[in-house]
Structure formats: structure tokens, C-alpha cells
Amino acid sequence: MTTELCSPMGFMRTPSEGTAELSWQDGRWFAAGRPLGRPLRPDDVAPLRPLRALRVAWPREPAAYALATIRDLAGAGVPLTADPPPAWVRAADPVLADLIAGWVPEAGDGSPRSVADLRREEHSVRLRRHALRAKGLCRDTPQVAVVMASRRPHLVGRALAQIARQRGADLEVIVALHGYPADLVRQALDEFPGTLTVIEADRDTPFGAVLNQAAERSSAGLIAKWDDDDWYGPEHIADLLLAKAYSGADVVGTAAEFFHLEPLNCTIRRTDYSSEVWTDHVAGGTILIDRRLFQEVGGFAPLPGGVDSHLLRAAAAAGGRIYRTHGLGYMLSRSVSGDHTWRLPLAHFLRVATNQWHGFRPSLLLETP
């Protein structure tokens, strides 16, 4: 991790101030009248966090540091907006130009339930993805072992389809069928387009031990846990890799923010877990951990449940640093089935909900058909 890298750390989900102007004067950028560093530093970004947006007033002609600073602001996740840019900007970075010009900030209501603020955060994620990768982050990312243990054969096909659509990551996939033979899900396994390792585990084997069996069959330097019943956006793994690159963490994961409650056919969103922070907790179905640390702590506990929290506690006790990135590309699914290893009544999710919508309503970053 580069200490001077302007990253999304410290992003504010609910802005407390309005839109400020970003103007080019005397060869440098001024944000709300305050000069920005050349190059941009994290100390320059911190005062911008409460803003709803920065409106970019592009210089008419190319200028040293002009585009580089905008890229740094985008990489930090600062929500940028602008009128259509001059030709030199579009020629230099057409994707960034379209992202900035394509978003118009909407007024929020000052509370975490604001959908306008959700759209603002989605825009921030798109900006940071593009800008940080353009700077070379994740260019040499190691392979990721995706490990999934499933006791529900009817969900294997859906889970594998979501793994198959992951972008920007080199994956090896290991699926442990917990209590049933591979022939029961043969079609789903055969339809997976990538390399797939399948193991069959006895149903009496504890869930954590089954996950360890899957991890042992992999060789990648990073291990990602995947839950068969949850929903993942196509850049889920890539976003975790990006967060690991700019944070330098040993473990990364997302906030558990969106939930689909199947029996009620409703989606709830909780915002009591902040994102882009150091933490001791991430959603279990999103854990990405260095293999070295995973092996040092003995992997998942050989228990029937609670294995995610046990792994996180063990990693922290061993000195591992845990970072939580945004949860917009992930949705947990909950039913009344007894198959969940994390068992809470549906009423609990309704009590903690910031937003509630009828039907399946994930963030736009999930990119559902």
C-alpha cells in the first residue's frame, strides 16, 4: 500500500454539504476556493468527504496535472459531475469523461434512507473502479480460489452462474457438495464455462470442515468464500481485490447491506455498518483472505455454524488487518429454511432496515438482468 495513494478510505455515505465547484486557476485546481495539492494527497481529499459532489469546470486546453488530479479524485471515490467535457478530455480518457458527465447529483433528505445518496455511492464506486485500475492497481493480482460448500443442490446452478460472470479476476473454483452426489447437479456442473474442482463431502461432516476440504484442494494465494444462496455482482471479486490493493489488508470483505427476504418478497437495506473502514467484521459470504493467514489460523473452525465470525476473530487475534469495502455488489438472501448457518428471524431484518422495498431490489451494481 502506498501511504500517499488517494483511496476511497473514509468515504461518507450520507453527505452533510452540497455541491462545490472545482475550478482551474493559475495552473492548479481549486475546490470550493481551496487549492489542491500537486499531486493530490489524502489530506486534500478529507475536507471533500462531506460534499454531495464536486462540479468540474474543465480547462479549455490540456494542462499539466489537470487530468491527473481528476483521476486521483475519482480514485478516491469523490463524486464528480460536469457538463460535457472539452475534446481533449474525451480523447485522453473517454470512459472517465462519460462517467463524470453522465451523473447529475440529486438532493438527498439528509438521512441514510436517501435513494439519491445510494445513487451517489454507486457513481463513486464506478469512478474509483476505473481510476484506480487506470493507475495500475490490481494489474498483477494473484489468482483467487473461490470456495463454496453447498447443502442445497437446487442452488448450485445459480451460484455457479454468478461465479462465471465475474470480471477482472483470475479464479480457480472449488465446490464442495455437502451431503449429495455430483450426479444430482451434473447439468449445472457441466454448464460452468471455467475450470471447476468438485468434491463430495459426507453430510455429517461439519460445515467448516467441508470448507477447509475445498480450500485444501486449491493453490491460489487468496481464498474467497462464496455462499450458494446469496447474490453477487459481476465485479464482486474484482472490487475485493481493489480494496485489498489500496488498503493493504490481510482480509477484506463487504458490508452486509442488502437483504432479499424471500417469504415476504421484499428487499431491505441496512446502513448501520459503514464501509471503507478498518473493522473486525465483514459479511461472511464476502471474506477474501490471504492463504498464508488462513493456514496460520487453521482455516475455518470445524463447526456446523458460526465459521465466518470464528475465522475473522482468529485472523484479528493473529495480527491480521480487516478492511470493509462497499456492499453494493452483494445481496444476502434469507428464507424460512433451516438450512442457513446464520439463523435470525425475518422480523430481525425488518427491525434493522433503513429502507424497505417490495420485490427484488438490489443496488444497480449487482447488474441483475
TrEMBL record:
Q: Which domain of life is it from?
A: Bacteria
Q: Which SUPFAM superfamilies match?
A: Nucleotide-diphospho-sugar transferases
Keywords assigned by UniProt? Transferase
Q: Carries keyword Transmembrane?
A: no
Domain Glycosyltransferase 2-like stretches: 147-256
Q: What GO MF annotations does this protein's record show?
A: transferase activity
What InterPro entries has UniProt attached to this entry?
Glyco_trans_2-like, Glycosyltransf_2, Nucleotide-diphossugar_trans
Q: Which PANTHER family match?
A: GLYCOSYLTRANSFERASE, GLYCOSYLTRANSFERASE 2-LIKE DOMAIN-CONTAINING PROTEIN
Q: What is this protein called?
A: Glycosyl transferase family 2
